[in-house]
Amino acid sequence: xxxxDPARLxxxxxxxxxxxxxxxxxxxxxxxxxxxADLAEIIRLYGLRPWIE
Length: 53
What we know:
It contains 2 helices and no strands. The model has no long low-confidence stretch (mean pLDDT 76). It is flat and about 40 Å long. The protein is mostly helical. Helix content is 25%, strand content 0%. The longest helix is centred in the C-terminal third of the chain and has 9 residues, at 39-47.
């Protein structure tokens, strides 16, 4: 389960995703080195991780 609300995460199956991609509404979203990404894009990119590793 991926959510922006930590209260909805299951107690025994919690994984935290870390990214350096800015949120679309972040102040530096369009001035940083990476384009903004919403939750769906971060989940999509994280799903590629097993194939890369």
